[in-house]
Design goal:
The chain is elongated. The chain has helices spanning 13-22, 70-81, and strands at 2-8, 29-35, 42-46, 49-53, 56-65, 92-98. The model has no long low-confidence stretch (mean pLDDT 91). The chain starts with a strand and ends in a 17-residue tail after the last strand. α1 (13-22) runs antiparallel to α2 (70-81). With 115 residues, the chain is α+β, with helices and mostly antiparallel strands. The longest helix has 12 residues, at 70-81. β3 and β4 form a beta hairpin. It has one domain (2-114): Alpha-Beta Plaits.
């Protein structure tokens, strides 16, 4: 089993979530976070005063998948998180982490049965 973590733009979460569900990935977690990458910080203005915004709001999607489904899930995420035809700075990152054990609390099922 693997844990797929994707950091994406907030405007792409609904689309990514719907497309993952269509592809058979129904269980996922979403949380709001802040961070910076290649975009770095930026200057914003409020009532004529400039101030630095160091971090940007992003969304974190996490889903557990069977090892055989990793590529399929990543393809869905990347295709639907990308903005524009060629993508843009700040579209996000996706990574995979090995998971040793999963237990469904309600039933006690373990492994892929618990996903």
């Amino acid at each position: 089993m693997k844990l797929i973590t994707a950091i994406i733009k907030p405007i792409r979460v609904e689309t990514v979530s719907k497309e993952l569900e269509k592809a058979g990935f129904t269980g996922l977690s979403v949380s709001e976070m802040q961070g910076r990458g290649a975009q770095a910080g930026r200057m914003e203005y409020y009532r004529g005063q400039a101030f630095a915004v160091e971090f940007r709001t992003k969304m974190c999607i996490e889903l557990l998948v069977a090892e055989k489904d990793v590529d399929k899930a990543i393809d869905v995420i990347v295709a639907n998180a990308r903005t524009g035809d060629a993508g843009a700075i700040g579209d996000g990152k996706v990574w995979v982490t090995p998971v040793e054990r999963v237990v469904r609390v309600r039933t006690g099922e373990e492994g892929e049965a618990a996903i």
